[in-house]
From TrEMBL:
It comes from Solanum lycopersicum (Tomato). One of its GO terms (cellular component) is cytoplasm. The gene is LOC101245532. InterPro entries: UDP_glucos_trans (IPR002213). The keyword Transferase applies. CDD domains: GT1_Gtf-like. It holds the Pfam family UDPGT. This is Glycosyltransferase. Belongs to the UDP-glycosyltransferase family. Keywords: Glycosyltransferase, Transferase. One of its GO terms (molecular function) is quercetin 7-O-glucosyltransferase activity.
Length: 486
């Protein structure tokens, strides 16, 4: 096999990935970039300039447009101007998305055309569901395109059935209607992605964009899903009959033989959290994170803090800084909290979550159930305490708790308040760290999923077969193009 440096740029198949912003998008795209590069492709990771700024600030010299060898292939980075420098426009989410599309269409098209001039024509564009218009650019340039679906296959099915009006969903007349979908458990209205229930705000904007992707579903030649067949067997089987679905997850497993420092963090990691975990007993720490976007409000933050304090349990809690453009308000810890915790808990702004989850001291994960966090918990065999916030997280929580049976869920007050009270948080933390037989079963199930996840990506595993089929298809497209140009 030839080494990447022996390959000329144009002899490698060039796959061009276009990620939306937010760590929950950047991570699976970068993971796919690595997977494809390790198989001998030249991969460009592309995203709006806002992401570029954040990634370059944290990852220093690694985020460059020159191809960097990775496995048998190479990775390079390129970002498109997104108009984000106008702060007054950024505050209006709908306008920001419209501007992103307008400037994105123009600038991304230029960047894609430039690839030909620079001797690395693109064989395939892989894009994000929040960029449905990228399908149209691909089509206009005659470049085949694929969608990387970064939520569960169950959510894909929900959006699909909703968009094409195939089954009844909650409505103004029946807001609490149960939803019955093929090959899925009955979903209560609050198990659905919140986008589908909201009639205003940024979630309505995201719903419109997401559903646009479903209207454009005939354009991608396949839909890659960061999940695995064994995890969502029935719904994958059902949706595969309707769409060219290919489960290729968990994407986070990298080839252990490839040593690379390329990371996609958009926030600086606090290095000492792993050292701190090293100092804690095995299976003693609850890891708490609500992902890269959601920030529970001040009242909820106080309740979590007192729940933790009263439980007496060790914890590592990520409290990320809120960027200026966030729709969430910054929060602070209650006065004197850290001194009362007295070393048994640690607060960090950002951590290497994959490492934290695979650390022997980590017992449970109190999570917002973002799909990346869910797949990372599954891949590390760590049971969860579900505290979904918005978007697909409610559906993921339903699956993690009731279908995968690897966790418990924080319950709201009976008085209808949205706030989870400190007593409930303390109760769940104590339950999760007890030797109750139900907890033992959850731990066992989490370990079982970890094993199945490993098998899916191992040689001849379901995801490994699917990714190889995708790579082979890209090679065919590339060979055909070269013949046409010869
Ligand atoms: N993450 C991380 N460090 C942290 C918190 C989160 O690396 O301190 C990563 C996490 O591993 C996951 C991503 O951020 O890959 C969050 O994605 P997810 O889909 O779970 O949630 P979102 O941020 O989209 O709500």
């Amino acid at each position: 096999m030839s080494s990447p440096s022996q390959n000329t740029k144009s002899s490698l198949v060039h796959v061009f990935l276009v990620s939306f912003h937010g760590q929950g998008n950047v991570n699976p795209f970068l993971r796919l970039a690595k997977r494809l590069a390790s198989k001998g492709m030249l991969v460009t990771f592309c995203a709006p300039e806002l992401v570029g700024k954040e990634m370059r600030a944290v990852n220093m010299n690694l985020i460059i447009d020159q191809p960097t060898p990775y496995g048998d292939g190479m990775i390079r980075f390129e970002f498109f101007e997104d108009g984000s420098s106008d702060q007054s426009i950024i505050e209006d989410f709908d306008l920001r998305m419209q501007m992103l599309e307008q400037t994105g269409r123009r600038n991304l098209t230029k960047i894609l055309k430039k690839q030909d001039d620079e001797g690395r024509p693109v064989s395939c564009i892989v894009h994000n569901p929040f960029f449905p218009w990228v399908c149209e650019i691909s089509e206009s340039l005659g470049i085949p395109n694929a969608l990387l679906w970064i939520q569960s296959c169950a959510c894909f099915s929900i959006y699909y059935h909703y968009n094409f009006n195939l089954v009844p969903f909650p409505s103004e007349l029946e807001p609490e209607k149960d939803v019955i979908l093929p090959s899925m458990p009955v979903l209560k209205h609050d198990d659905l992605p919140t986008f589908l229930l909201k009639s205003s705000g940024f979630e309505l904007v995201l719903k419109r964009i997401m559903l646009n992707q479903f209207n454009n579903l005939s354009k991608p030649f396949c839909v890659l899903v960061d999940s695995f067949q064994e995890l969502e067997h029935e719904v994958v089987r059902h949706m595969s009959k309707i769409c060219p679905i290919r489960t290729i997850g968990p994407l986070l497993f990298n080839d252990p033989e490839i040593v690379s420092h390329i990371r996609g963090d958009c926030t600086n990691i606090e290095e000492d959290c792993i050292e701190w975990l090293d100092s804690r007993p095995t299976s003693s720490v609850v890891y708490i994170s609500f992902g890269s976007v959601a920030v529970p409000d001040q009242e909820q933050t106080d309740e979590i803090a007192f729940g933790l304090l009263n439980s007496g349990i060790s914890f590592l809690w990520v409290m990320k800084p809120t960027p200026g453009y966030s729709v969430f308000q910054p929060v602070v810890l209650p006065d004197g909290f850290l001194s009362k915790v007295d070393g048994r808990g640690k607060i960090v702004k950002w951590c290497p979550q994959e490492q934290v989850l695979s650390h022997p001291s980590t017992a449970f994960f109190l999570t917002h159930c973002g799909w990346n966090s869910s797949m990372e918990a599954i891949s590390s065999g760590v049971p969860i305490i579900a505290y979904p916030q918005w978007g697909d997280q409610a559906t993921n929580a339903k699956y993690l708790v009731d279908v995968f049976k690897m966790g418990i869920r924080l319950s709201k007050d009976e008085n209808g308040s949205k706030i989870i009270r400190r007593e409930e948080i303390e109760k769940c933390l104590r339950e999760a760290t007890s030797d109750d037989s139900k907890v033992a079963e959850m731990i066992e199930n989490a370990r079982k999923w970890k094993k199945q996840a490993e098998e899916a990506v191992a040689e001849r595993g379901s995801s490994a077969i699917n990714i190889q089929a995708f790579v082979d298809e890209l090679k065919n497209i590339h060979a055909k193009k070269q013949q046409e140009n010869a």
